[in-house]
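Researcher: Here's a chain I'd like modeled. Treat it as a single chain, no partners, no ligands.
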Amino acid sequence: MKLVIHGAQDLSDVPGLEDYAGEFELAFAADAAALEAALPGAEILLGWNFRGRELADAWHSADALRWIHWCGAGVDAVLFPGLVESDVVLTNSRGVFDRAMAEYVLGLILAQAKEFPATLDFQEKREWGYRLTERVQGRRILLVGVGSIAREIAKLLQALDIEVRGVGRTARDGVPVFGAVVGIDTLLEEAARADWVIGVLPETEHTFSVFGANFFATMKSSARFINIGRGSAVDEGALAAALTGKTIAGAALDVFRTEPLPAEDPLWNAPNLIVSPHMSGDYRGYLDDVFALFISNLSNYLEGAPLSNVIDKRAGYVRD
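Model: Modeled as a single isolated chain. Structure tokens:
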């Protein structure tokens, strides 16, 4: 059975793969040309570079492909029409990054409430910048997106006695980690009452610029915005304007429309904005966990058992 590893040059790039090298015909494809050459006859593709978009151009060479496992939570890089319309099953690495991203969000909330960036600035200037900061207990936080990452965030926030509400495509009951899950049609109404709004949306045709000028204008002037979902969900110019005009109190972005964020981008100078390089889900050893999930799913595939984390290719995410 032929297995193509997209985004890797050899066995050393994928921890643990050497243990299975004798069981499959392995082909490594670090770039578009190598991928096009490797795909003929391949039944499985392991997408090791979750940002890689070369598959669309090489798709005509996929004559035997049945399953793609993507090593990120987001799969927007491979949701091109040819794959969406095909019978090829697409799975992702949902679950691997949930706890790390939840901890990262918690860290950002505390950093904003306790003014850690200002404290570091005072330290750099050797100034004794005594001031009062905020408590997070009893605050209201709105999670836009209610998938597995959002649920893990909600679980941590509830432990701090924070009121947590979620926004999904439609309202629903039976999600105990949220005080309530409301529909996206009530987003502005909910945002107007929140102390923090956290974006945890996948990239789909319905999520582009969800967080735009009207959204930020609706938020309280004391509220803050965090986005760890996809950069395309944020109108970055509108956010920069909201921060500059003090429409909102602060923001933190871990994802951007263009990555890496260009050095000349005005977001670097936006006031009260924490910028991080798409790292909220990555932790020391995460690649081992990503590969372990793939191997578990590979066992299911070989045994004819149902695969986990199957993407609804038209929706763009795993349906619960």
